[in-house]
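Exercise 7.
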Amino acid sequence: MKMTSRDFNSLISFGKPNAIPELSPPNTLRIMMLAPHPDDFDAIGVTMKFFLHNGNPIVVGVARTGSGVEDAYRPGLTLAGKADLRDQEQRRSLQFFGLPGGDFTSLCFTNDEGDQLTDPPENLTLVEEFVSENAPDIVFLPHGNDTNSAHKAMYSQLKQVSQRSEYPFAMFLIRDPKTINMRTDLYMPFDQQDADWKAQLLRFHDTQHQRNLRTRNYGFDDRVLNVNREIARDLSLTHEYAEAYEVEYFDKQEISRRTG
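Solution. The predicted structure, written as tokens, is:
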């Protein structure tokens, strides 16, 4: 099986999930990451590195937010200052990753009192405009079946965009530490060398790393890599780690052809 822009439904697995490298994705596929938080991109850093080295164009849109920064991290910092801090962490991690600066956009949404993404009409419009401007084939984002309200909101908005867009795209929904349950259609296996690289990428988000060290007694890097170990065990892989995705694809034109 090969990954193409015309048959994403074939990737939806009701049996054995597929490893992304084995699908030989063409480098013409346009990749987008739509993140409700700085650090969501880094949680799937190995997959993103695969597409970068494959030659696929990648654009990253990240919601501007100061959520998740403890007051003790930098006393006296305002919520806007916390958002600036997280934005700087994301920019440094993307520079380390190798993403050209012009391919990153900080998205200014309407957030709740905790500075988490919400789901009002103006946010939907911003998501729709960003998708329309970049015309992706694949959009990576956190799964909607998740305990985090911003993850749910981003998924809800993008799903609405996908259902009314004239240009079909696939949503690759990420399994992360807050995912409740999902079907695994695709995975990206990786070894210890890539895990060490990914840990370094994740530690650029020092606000989150220090919060995890204080509240969980292990770092943000270990929190994400522990999930990657669990995915590899669940799939009985020979690799120690894997990133996992559920595929959703809504092709309005194809549905119209089938029902018309």
